[in-house]
């Protein structure tokens, strides 16, 4: 392997080496540089300078000095200096005396580097055995030296193939094994078909150079999923024809990452002067910019955050080719500032820019009227929207002249689609488990409806549940009795939902959403009373034994200046920020509330290492609408809802805060509804029909009775395997019996894990 790599280096650097082959000492320098401690470090090296990977060599002839030799050119796909080879049965010597020598199955080389490694199993073994074999090799330290540069693992049996980004053995999570799908989201399972679509040239080269992202925050390498790659390709095709469009990728499937790659690729098109990424609120501006910065740190582009309007104007006037991240509000100020400057040089320069707008959460970020105004200012604009919840005819916006009312009318054709049904099937996101908790007893509801509707109890008994709930008033859910029931449900009946049994520092986070700021403030005060021991109930002993400081609460909402309740809301927020500062030793104030909100985001998401410590963690954040759209926190498991049903797109958006893949104990995104249970259930059904593309029954977890029956059936299957104490031991049983036992045990384990999350 090393000898082959040496030949490639010499062939691609003939001019630099001036015809002199590398000496042993010079090549050892290169070998030493290719001893990476992590695959993340290898990925940073491969990113190179402006897309060219290099090594530095001090030549033995001192008069010749130091040279930098090219290794791989990212853009040389199926041409240029790139060469491709396949090797198999490479013997890897053991690292320690008591370990074993190993043979790697198949590796794909680009310019002599094994950037893709494949482990194969026959029909008697699952691809999961191949995955576990790679993890074993990792723990044995076998991926060292030239194999420390691997950027993609592939595991396969004759019927199934998966790929995954490399990581250390402890961080290789099987839940991130990805199966390939074609552009129509049809699965590609066999190794032959997978090879044709993914491992052939040019696709294999693109997979490890153009469809990887280096995350500098998580110190990890990300391989794009197939639907992300297909969307990027469709946008690229659209730009060739100078047409706009939108991408429907379900929430939680990595839209921001896809949008980053789209924005990056748009800069490579000469006909586009600027790429502007628009987000719809300041808090998402911060989160998106943070993600973009993390992705771009080792990429060949720059990301500019616009802190002020004058900063945005400066960047628009600049000739630098960068991705600009900004909000619609800042863009609006730019247009206002130049409204009366027609004919000036700056006006002409800005209005004639060829701009590609990439819009996150496009179902709400840019209104149809605002887009019409922007197009009137920037005369050469292309628009590419990303959303998990497009606006359709069924939930179209109110009519406003001839302005577009749906996402398709506003942005153009749908370029790619990946719905929640497909994402759950592929394991890209989790399904939802929704529980409807009624704090008003059925007999109380019947009497209440009879009184308000002036009907007899017999007449009310014939009404359906949704019709009965139409007689309830908001005040029925704003009383302290109802709210205390909600708080008790959260702290004493949601331990598994919140992962309190996972161990200190490993619990999950949650959101509690209310219908108003005043209701959110009341809940915040109730939780403070609870923690002060003044609640009408106590936190369970089991909870306190596991997490003595549970629950740690914060609140966030939009603070305004001139509304009727502005002063009251500002005073309440000041008190909440003081509590927060006391809890975490911070020093935020109302004057820097943006930083306070950003810190809440970070603590709730726990993506940074410091927030893995229990002392730095939040448990629950109380919100109205903030964080219900666009917020990404894989460790967030549960959404508690004490408000009436929202619009279909807002239901899906809010639910989708919970269904990111995280760890093996997080089985579903958990939703608990405390108001109008039957009305809410109907609204959820309608939203799922609208946004699941016919797969609404595949998205929700089964009801408790179904899950319970599945568990009993799995337990009965497991009980069939009883060992006779006087008979053979487990290790002596036939392989067929052991396989049947393993399958039965896995079924029981899966059923038990699924059943434990029900309240």
TrEMBL record:
Keywords: ATP-binding, DNA-binding, Endonuclease, Hydrolase, Nuclease, Nucleotide-binding, Restriction system
PANTHER family in the record: TYPE I RESTRICTION ENZYME ENDONUCLEASE SUBUNIT (PTHR30195:SF16), TYPE I SITE-SPECIFIC DEOXYRIBONUCLEASE PROTEIN SUBUNIT M AND R (PTHR30195)
Protein name (record): Type I restriction enzyme endonuclease subunit
Organism name: Lacticaseibacillus paracasei
Assembly and binders: The type I restriction/modification system is composed of three polypeptides R, M and S.
Start and end residues of each Helicase ATP-binding domain: 236-391
Any GO MF annotation of the entry: ATP binding
UniProt function note: Subunit R is required for both nuclease and ATPase activities, but not for modification.
Top EC class of this enzyme: hydrolase
SMART domains from the UniProt entry: DEXDc
E.C. designation(s): 3.1.21.3
Family classification: Belongs to the HsdR family.
GO BP field: DNA restriction-modification system
Keyword ATP-binding: yes
